[in-house]
Amino acid sequence: MATGSISSEKIDLLIYGPGRPILQNGFSDQFVLHAAETKHDLERLAAVAEKIRGIAVTYHTVHADKSALALFPKLEIVSSFGVGYDHVDSTYAREHNIVVTNTPDVLTEEVADVAMGLLIATLREFVKADRYLRSGLWTTQNYPLSVGSLRDRKVGIVGMGRIGQAIGRRLDASRVPVMYHSRKPAADVSYKNYPDLIEMAKAVDTLIVIVPGGAATANMINAEVLKALGPRGVVINVARGSVVDEQALIAALKSGTILAAGLDVFAKEPAVPEELRAMQNVVLLPHIGSASVVTRNAMDQLVVDNLKAWFAGKPPLTPVAETPVKGR
Ligand code: NDP
Asked: What is the pTM of this model?
């Protein structure tokens, strides 16, 4: 890995993506900040590109892909906002001695709260019931009983990492049986592990999806998995839109192959297919898993702290698995 040096020399950093106060005000005079809101804006940085040693990637909608990273010959570290970093080319980074960091842990409980809330809202039809009340219909008739309930469910969590385990703790407290699918059994987890996703889908009636995005998980929730889940089936996706075959999901919801879905993420955000928006058996959220003031501030602070640690000659706080840092 490249080595960040401690000296009186100014350090040029790029804030790539939307700017926010903690990012813009969190650095001392030792740093010189440059800004690019979009990939298109990177082209205007030609005059300073060769001085830039660190990049803060401030949202998953800007792509720190090979062609973006290659513009910066002296780049040492990419500090990415969010725990998912499928928008950062970590393979290119590793090959070019560039460290990539993300913001795990500080958002784990928040995202697990959203998954649990979305599950209950989907099963017990909170959004539909709210619309019913506001329309005045309650004054003439009680809201119909919900077909869905958490009481008679078995949940399969797809991805048993930090957030998957936090969702499991919430389901334990709600006395709901949990099992999970991941490529290898998770350490210190007592739930049954299904190495085969189809087998798990057959054994449960609810899937909560919380794996990373990227090529390895693209469309892993496909027509076959939805069919195995069956007509009581509910899919909650708080991972990435790419993980679910959106067209297969729409078809399964329309045909009654599954019962309902709660979605925080979509294939082409912020575009959401009109067919989904017209359905009554889905709850749709605009990618708000970690989006509270307290959690987003903690994530911004970790983006800043990773850069500061690196340029103080210390190890980065949260390097991703592809770019481990040894001997600093
Ligand atoms: P972790 O890295 O801690 O956990 C990931 C889990 O997914 C592990 O259990 C891993 O196990 C499993 N997994 C990875 N690849 C595969 C695969 N190909 N097939 C099956 N299982 C797989 O991550 P976090 O729990 O911290 O975060 C998970 C993801 O949640 C993030 O990457 C992000 O995309 C998403 N997220 C979404 C948010 C939102 O706003 N909706 C907010 C925060 C995160 P194994 O390697 O053994 O397979």
From this structure: 0.96
